Amino acid sequence: MSYQRFKNFVGSLPTHILVIALVLFWVTPSMGLLVASFRPVQDSNTTGWWQVLSARPGASEYRQYCAECHGDDGEAIATANLRDPDLISSFRRSIQLAATFSNEYDGTIHLPEEQRPESQELADILAYLRRQSGVESRPRVTINNYVDALVGYRGTTSYTADCEAETQPADLSCEFVDDLGNPRGMARAFLNTVIVTLPATLLPLFFAAFAAYAFSWLHFPGRMWLFAIMVGLQIVPLQMTLVPISRLYLQLGLSGSFLGVWLFHTGFGLPYAIFLMRNFIGSLPRELFESVYLDGASHWTAFYRLALPLSAPALASLAIFQFLWVWNDLLVALVFLTGRRPVLTYQINNLVQSLGGGWHLLTASAFLSMIVPLIVFFAFQRYFVRGLLAGAVKG
Amino acid sequence: MSARVPNIMRQGRVVPWLYLAPSLIIILIFIVYPMFNTGYLSLRNGDSTNWANTACVEGQSCWGTLENYRYALTSELDTTSFASTWRTFWISSFGNNIKWILLMVSGSVGIGLTMAVLSDRVSYESLAKSVVFLPMAISFVGAGIIWKFVYNFGTETTQIGLLNAIIRSLGGQPVSFLTRLPLNTFMLVIVGIWIWAGFCMVILSAGIKGVSTELLEAARIDGASEWTVFWRITIPIILPTIAVVVTTMVINTLKIFDIVFVMTGGNFSTNVIANRMYTEMYVNHQTGRGTAVAVILVLAIIPFMYMNIKRFREQEAIR
User: Fold this and answer.
1) Which residues in chain A are closer than 8 Å to B33, comparing Cβ atoms?
2) Which of A266, B77, B276, B304 gives A203 a disulfide partner, CB atoms 3.0 to 4.6 angstroms apart?
3) SS (H, E, C) A29-54
4) Is residue A363's pLDDT more than 50?
5) pLDDT tens-digit series, residues B144-174
6) Could you write out the DSSP letters of every residue in B47-115?
7) With an 8 Å Cβ cutoff, are B146 and A33 in contact?
């Protein structure tokens, strides 16, 4: 390599290191969530997600304390075959295993005091023995967490395990399709979120397109002032509008209804939407419209057949923006829909507040709520970015 | 777009209003009316049955009709001495919001700028930028969970939170990040930066790419180092863009609700204004106080919105 190229390489090294470090910092937390969501509950709550592929606790402790007599595979002593599931399942707790240490086998004590493992090591050994003997076989990765999250299972083992043993919680019937409708499950919340998001995305689009056309190509008194005020209303934060509207809905009987949330999201998204659409429609070439009017077209035709199709990119940007905003919103759903019609964000929030641990469930639920936005984001990244830039940078 | 509309396009006096009607009605009902109503409610008492001054208690300080504002501004403070006021101010929701603004805006804009500049020079630019921008697509609740998992404080022997595991493996003692003052607000701000830096990066990147390459080439030929080129040429040119990003970020920071709500619920002195509004209104059912906090939030936002709009109108004039 020539000296110049080497110098260039070393010179650019700090840049690469910094960029890669930032990228790793950005992606690692999400990676942790994803990996943890596939781990069985017992693993998730005891070891870190980065240990998903490493040796499980218990193997080395077993080798240290037991392998000498029982053999590496546990079958060395015929009367105490550690691979026998019946034998191992009789030790439900490590205390019972510790009790055998004082027993005498063939005249010698099982394990003298100074050779006994600590309580945590003993628990690990028992877990190891249970896995080896098949009493509790646990794959490294499982989709059980996702199943549990979808049906709203809040028990201690897993939905599939409980249904097999017929010990499922009261609100589940073990008919999978029926259980998907469980109001505590993510599947139901997913449906609710879709019901909330689609109209709340489409309505602002249409209303804003109409208004933007009027502001761009129609003449009426007070046009500039009205536009400035409408766009200036972007100032008003969500919190300012929550209280009066929730009281209004209470009187109108719209509390907790989907219609109420659609209207609210539409109202809140309109100023920005009108701003965006007006910028775009207003920048369409004047000659286009003039020639159309010369040909005798009405405003409606010009709007429907000319302005609307031409402003498709802006409509797409706006749609993506509004879709992500409504899908990811918590506060509006918290105030207007509450638990009667939980959406994904509401459901996750509920899980966080009520569950102390249970990371296996939390991670799976969180990821379920993220799948659609991530897909939308990856598919339409261009439009999302364009929508952002249209509001902040000119030209 | 021209200011004058050609005669050919003036058609009817009712038609424009037909196009505007849906938007106008909805905006009137959902933004204009609530705006005034919130202001009005902030002057009424807890369940809005009477004016706020009727909630005054004999012998304690009261601001008459503005009683809710007195509560909103002073209830988190211990005003017995200057020292106690100073101390409680900085762990009150106002103090926390100030910390958020200072840390989050500088963090997001700084990292956004760094990524915008550096990724410009590597071949995997679009991949790197996509990764940093990704958190903007997920909900703040999801982000809160992701980071709550990272910050998890385990037991003596097991650490399932990444950060504490790293600290442990380096020989330190695990830290309960979300409950320990004043660290916890800082840890929450990191989540905010993680979400918003991508936003800053995208906008700043567009601004940076708009700087003419001839200018930069000329400077380099004249012997300027990369550092000088960056600070003396690029930064001054994109200063308007930076200004827009900063003011937008301040506004976004003031509205932060979900992150604090999901990760700490506002406890352990991490409360912020938006959460306070929610708590007063929907947990304590104190309409007057909740709306007063909302009004204070708007008043805090207005200066920055004004700067943003001024910037917009300046650029509009150039267009």
Assistant:
1) 244
2) A266
3) HHHHHHHHHCCCHHHHCCCCHHHCCC
4) yes
5) 999 988 988 877 677 888 888 888 888 888 8
6) TSSSBGGGG--TTS---GGGHHHHHHHHTT--TTSHHHHHHHHHTSHHHHHHHHIIIIIHHHHHHHHHH
7) yes
The type of residue at A184 is R
CA distance B213 to chain A (A): 17
Residues 6+ apart with CB under 8 A from A42: A127, A138
**Torsion sign, CA atoms B250, B251, B252, B256:** positive
Amino acid at A241: T
**Separation CA A50–CA A31 (nearest Å):** 10
Is A324 in the B-facing interface, judged by CB distances under 8 Å? Answer: yes
Q: Which of A237, A334, A394 sits opposite B298 (nearest CB)?
A: A237
Interface test with B, best of A45, A49, A145, A218 (most B CBs within 10 A): A218
Taking the C-alpha atoms of residue A327 and residue A42, their distance in angstroms, rounded to an integer, is 32
Place of tokens 């958020």: B100
% of chain B surpassing 70 pLDDT = 92
Task: Say if the Cβ atoms of A240 and B34 lie within 8 Å.
Answer: yes
Contact B16 A239 (CB under 8 A): no
What does the pLDDT read at residue B1? Answer: 43
ipTM above 0.85, yes or no: no
